Amino acid sequence: WETDQVGVSIYRGGVAITSPSSGDRLTATVNIASGSNLTIAVTVGARYDNSGSWGGVRCVMMAWNGSTATRNLLFIGTSAGGVYVSSGVAGSSNQTATIGGINWSIPHRLVATHQQSNGAVKFYIDGVVVGSTTDTGTRPALTEVTIGGITGNGFGVSPALVAMGDAMLSTDVWTSAQVVTDYLNARAAMGR
């Protein structure tokens, strides 16, 4: 990680291509059927730990249906330098505890899983489960993945002030072993 620039950063051909604006985001159209299991994963870090200036809720990564009228999503976000996962089904809002005290000057691998059959939501940092919650109901189809912020700051959520990369989305619920394998693979890319 060679940048303390906020927003989305990627490497292409060994060259850092960095988001020029804190309001930038990456958005992809997806087609995730109603009631699907879900795993989202992203690597987050910055050269300097400036988490003291993050304030408020900020979007790191989210799979959602594009509507700010009703919460249907799986969300990884930051709040005052801590990080948490939130699941929304038909407007509900269930979230893990916010994990604070993270050294954001080194990159971390964040993974959120949601098992539709029992509503289990798990949150992992660097391959270790750090939080969980449960939701109820069947999530409608999801149509969008957003990394780095929601257009118009929907739900009152601002763009995250971190460098992000290597985002992944799966309609499987990763096991703990799969999350550890993902972290070990990502760790080499993170230089850890």
Write structural notes for this entry.
With 192 residues, the protein is mainly beta. 8% of the residues lie in helices and 45% in strands. It contains one helix and 14 strands. A seven-stranded mixed β-sheet has the order 2-1-14-4-9-10-11, covered by helices on one side.
Mean pLDDT: 81
Indicate the proportion of strand residues. 35-45%
Measured on Cα atoms, how large is the radius of gyration?
A: 15 Å
| Number of helical segments with 4 or more residues | 1
Range of helix content: under 10%
Helix-strand sequence:
EEEEEEEEEEEEEEH
C-alpha end-to-end distance: 10 Å
State the total count of DSSP E strands.
Answer: 14
- How is the largest sheet built, in terms of strand order? 2-1-14-4-9-10-11
Structural class: mainly beta
Strand and helix layout:
Blueprint: E1 7-12, E2 15-18, E3 26-32, E4 38-45, E5 57-64, E6 73-79, E7 82-88, E8 94-95, E9 108-115, E10 120-125, E11 128-134, E12 142-147, E13 158-159, E14 163-170, H1 176-190
Provide a concise account of the structure shown.
The protein is mostly beta strands. 8% of the residues lie in helices and 45% in strands. The protein is built from 1 helix and 14 strands; from the N terminus they run ββββββββββββββα.
Descriptive key words:
1 helix; mainly beta; seven-stranded mixed beta sheet; globular; 14 strands; 192 residues; single chain
